[in-house]
Structures are given as C-alpha cells and as structure tokens.
Amino acid sequence: MADKDPVMLGEYVRVYVDKKSALPPDLQDLSSKVDPNNAIFGYFNASWLAKNSVKMSEKPHPDSWEIKGPAKLSQAILALADATAKPAAKSHLQEAIKKRTTLLLWSTREERLRSSNFIFSSPFPGSSLHHLSRAICAEAQRLALSGDRDGFIRLAGMTETYWQRRLADHDPTLINCVILLG
C-alpha cells in the first residue's frame, strides 16, 4: 500500500524509523512515485542527513554552532534546497491518525485506554525534523561568518518556505490527537 497511497507511505516511514532508527532506503524512489510534488519526504531526508553534523557549542557563545560534519551539513542543505523546490509539503499525519483511530476498539474503558495509549505512543516522523532545524542554524552562522550574503539570502528563503509549510500543515500534537479522537 505504501507504493500507492501517500498516507500509507507516511505510515511506512513512521514504522521503519521507529524500528530501524533510519529512513527507509527506498524512500526517495517511493516518494517520487507516490507523492512526487510533496516536499515532506525530502525534509525527512535532509534532517536525517543533518543528524550529528552539528552541535550547539557552549564556547565562545551559548548560541554558536560547531560543525562536526561539514560534508553531511552540505548534503543536508542541498536536500533542503531540493525539497523546497517542490510545490507543497504535506505530512498526511491527520489522515493517518484518522485511519488508525477507525481501526481501534473504543467500546469499553480498557479498550479506550489501550487505543489511546497506542495513538499517543506512536512516534511521529515530524519529531525527527529537529536535526534539520539545527543544521539550518549552523549553516546560517557559517554563511554569516564567511560573509556569504547571497548564500545567506538563499538559505533564509528556503528556511522561510520550510517553516511556512510546516506550520500550515497542521501536524497533530498530543492536543490535536485528543481533539481528533473526540
């Protein structure tokens, strides 16, 4: 089903990441086939590329960044650029939660507790996007310190698009999940 339905592709990514602590190796092929104009899978890729590439430094300033893997950081920023070039970003998470909840049992108190526990304990791939946010900060610092104004402006544009899309997608939080259950 993940090879035909964007919602199920998102679920496949969620389960794979939970079990293997990595993105599925076939994610790029599947997402280009199933949901080719959707940037969200590219954002996941960029975030995983960025993982462990930067570290917040305590010296000389608490908000400065240490670049631990310049090649990984560069790859992550290129993946961010590729994803941002796509026309939209939709996580399909609300649809996935609705599909999950319709399959669960809700009649008795015990069933409601088990079903609620299942929903709230299911990891959301969006939580792994924090690596990308850190990479963006480190790259902005690097560009500013090197005086690369054009690169900084490009990064600022990509970052603005990324955050506008993330905020407009209405990814469910714990509160949103409770509302969806109601």
Which structural class best describes the helix and strand composition?
mainly alpha
Number of domains: 1
Terminal residue distance: 28 Å
Low-confidence stretches: 175-182
Spatial order of strands in the largest sheet: 1-2
Count of extended strands: 2
General form: elongated
Strand content: under 5%
Portion in helices: 55-70%
Please, how many helices? Answer: 9
Q: What does the main sheet amount to?
A: 2 strands, antiparallel
Detailed description of the structure:
The structure is a single chain. With 182 residues, the protein is mainly α. The protein has one domain. It is built from nine helices and two strands. A two-stranded antiparallel ribbon has the order 1-2. Helix 4 packs across helix 7 (130-146) and helix 4 packs across helix 8. It starts with 5 loop residues before the first helix and ends with a helix.
Task: State the gist of this model.
Helix content is 65%, strand content 4%. The protein has 182 residues and is mainly alpha-helical.
List key phrases describing it:
182 residues, mainly alpha, elongated, two-stranded antiparallel sheet
